[in-house]
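Lecture 7 notes: from sequence to structure.

We start with a single chain of 823 residues. Read the sequence below before looking at the structure.
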Amino acid sequence: MKRSITIILLLLLVSAANAQIKGKVTDENGLPLSSVSVYFENSFTGTTTNDNGAYSLALKKTGRYVVFFQILGFTTLKKEVNITSFPFELDAVLREENVQLKEIVISTKDNPANRIIRNVIANKEKNTDKYAKYTAKFYSRGLYKIKDAPKSFLGQNLGDFGGSLDSTRSGIVYLSETISEINFQKNPKKFKEKIIASKVSGRDNGISFNRAEDASIDFYENEVMLGNDLISPIATSAFSYYKFKLEGSFYDTNGRLINKIKLIPKRANDRVFSGAIYIVEDDWALYGTDVSVTGAQISTPVVDVLHLKQNYNYSSENDAWVLISQSIDFKLDAFGFKLDGRFSAAYSAYNFSSKFSENTFSNEVLSFEKNATKKDTVFWNKLRPVPLTKEEVKDYVVKDSINIVRKSKNYLDSINKNQNKLKLLSPITGYTYRNSFEKWSLSFYGLLGNTGFNTVQGLNTSLGFNYSKRLNDLGKRWNVGVKSNYSFSEKVLRPTFFFTKKWNNMSRPQIGVSGGVTTAQFNGREPISALENTIRSLYLRNNYFKIYEKGFVKITYSEEIKNGIFFSTSLEYANRNPLFNTSNYSFAKQSKNAPYASNNPVDQTDFENAPFTAHKIATLNIGTTFIFNQKYLSYPDRKFNMGNEKAPSLAVNYRKNFGASNAALNSDLFTANIRQEISAGNYGNFSYNLRGGFFLRKKEIALMDNLQANGNQLTFVLGNQLDSFGLLDYYKFYTNDKYAEAHIEHNFKGAFLSKIPLINKLNLHLVAGAKTLFMADNKPYSEYAIGLDNIGFGKWRFLRVDYVNSNYAGIKNNGFLFRLSLF
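Now the structure, written as tokens:
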């Protein structure tokens, strides 16, 4: 303990020695002010104060300087100082801003705030064109604090969060910092970031996820990206969502008139902000923002309220107001966890005369400098623009010390000894034996999640083991496992095995070998899950699960061979056999003698004949997926693909069935799938999914090798179902010829319903969609749907209800679908 205290004191002393100008900023009552922008006159050399109001400002030489202290709600303070030696102490006391309402000549009915907002909207392009290209330095700090953390969650002991918690189970659970260089271009919009240094308390890799692009909250855009597409108060459609009130005005230190505009949402449940924005008169540019949104508005229900502050500074170089600091504060309260969070950011060293080459921007939008996660304390204390608080210094020291201890073999063995104890429920919930120091684990599959019911197997359960070995921290690992499924009605044991190996987390090359005896759905797209079928069978005597037996051996390989191009292939040899019902058990009130439907998907009244003849066959699949112009992030240990919302993704696949015991069953099939989700701004999101395929030659092949649509016969479904139909029987349509299907959907968010009195208080989202299916030798099938999304109570809104109307050959049907989305 004494050693930790000594280290903390040394860090504080080193930090002080490197702080050329340092001090503390308080209000008139002596209370510290955080997020105050501190900068030199006519420059973007600056910093912000930490949570304790302390700041440090780097300076290379002595002399006369003018230092500004700026934060919304307080009068900007200008101090002229003559620095003769370092470190130089410079404290500041800020007075609350005296915002006064100007006298208004009542010669118009127009609200003066409306006039100001109209001018801002009219000048958006002009103002943002002034910094259409720039480079800058970016600093970000992320901090999470927890209070009264529960000791367990869902039966699992939560421990001390890596040494974060004190005796009251409170403390810092996450602390990270990032220093990076950013390049920005407005038209066409491009962004690139290179992280120079990254640090996470208590972690070796130090990979912080505080990205500059994620922190780029731009109110000049019509939609502000903050977990959801929020309507900017200066969007072109702002007057449809906000009322504005001029609360008053004041002059900054340079004599510019600043107007404070209060934001009054027309409808509380819209995707809008509350609070105030500050506008520079005549320039009609943002001077600052002080706004908040609820968790429901940003689609993050666990967040109560999120508070955002931004400060802008004037650049004489290009006559523009540019962002210099930003802070996001939020509180989470869910499932017994109470968290306070803050992400603060500071921008400096703007260069507006940057000349970008063709190679400046690429699909790689984030990269790390070599050894960016290995920077030492001296480096951070020299370049960190915002000083750490004593609490943060202590967190780094304590957790880094704990991390060293917790990597040792003795400690890991002691932790594993406790974790590896068998519990009474282990046979049901599963069990894992870990050796963390050697980086391997052996897991036993419990009965929970591996037990189900269907009419072929009756009650069936699977037991098995999985061994996993991690070879390095870059993604190289291998797994091997065995599993056996026993069917109590059939009295049949079906064993399987698998082996997989992955080499890295960059291109993620992975090979797999598997085999054994299993059951498979006739529709390989698996339209119904085993759990859904179990519930429907036992409680409603519905038998939608149609399966056959497959003895097989299979080898697979997949890799991202080039950015945005994913290759996969598999080769399987299988012995396929038909299966028949063996169980008639159900909890349903219907007569126990009433039979289930048969396991024949072609004729569910036929209990004697199989839908196919037993055979052996080999299957080769070769597939490629193209994500056009895919953006990605390059971390030191992995590549993270972001996709590209402006372009669709295309998947093409060739399947060849060959070597069949009956040569007539051999076939060649080509399929393609294209899908995309497009943001429509204030009008929600539009999505589509198109799929089609054709056989080189029409042949009488086995049912499971036909092209099939994903149907649905459930009333309650999970997910968005953009690849299945709502009212189509599971095995009504299949073809050995040509096939195409299309699904389109538009979620209007609050674009329409938010404008209807009373209804807008419910915060519902209107959804409309259409689906169609074309198959050779069949008439088209179509569905149209309209629904309400975001149904629930308070912040928790996971339910969606659709009314669906279908049409096939003049026969119409309709019904309701209830959809539950947990994520």
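The first helix runs from residue 2 to 18. Keep this in mind for problem set 3.
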